[in-house]
Amino acid sequence: MTNDMMIRVTQLEGDAKTKMTFLVEGSLNFTGAQLLASVCQQAALQTKQVSIDLSGVAYLDESSATLLCWLRRQPKVSLTGCNLFTGLVLEEAETATSLVG
Fold first, then answer.
1. Which of 7, 63, 66, 98 has its CA 20 to 30 A from that of 31?
2. Domains, the chain, ranges and CATH?
């Protein structure tokens, strides 16, 4: 079994001055989540709202979920399109983060 996880982040069409939406597809590990966070932080400097569509995520690990929870708490960032698995992993990561912090 390999530890290499594939992720694709696509900026969707729309009015980039008011909102940028990024579709995330594949399996998300911490390295991929760091890349996504970097993309979103740069986008937040250029637009009013950044939306991360997670409908294409098949798998995410605990560390990537923790980073996504951090992103969700940023003023301009929202997460959408979570399937049941993704939503549960994010909820668990958010609970773990609130217990520690």
1. 98
2. 7-100 (3.30.750.24)
E strand or H helix at 88: helix 84-100
Whether residue 5 contacts residue 35, with contact meaning beta carbons closer than 8 Å, is answered with no
Instruction: Return the structure tokens found at 37.
Output: 């966070």
3-state secondary structure of 20: strand
15-37 residue pLDDT tens: 878 999 999 999 999 999 999 99
Q: pTM (2 decimals)?
A: 0.87
Per residue in 41-82, pLDDT (tens digit) is 999 999 999 999 999 999 999 999 999 999 999 999 999 999
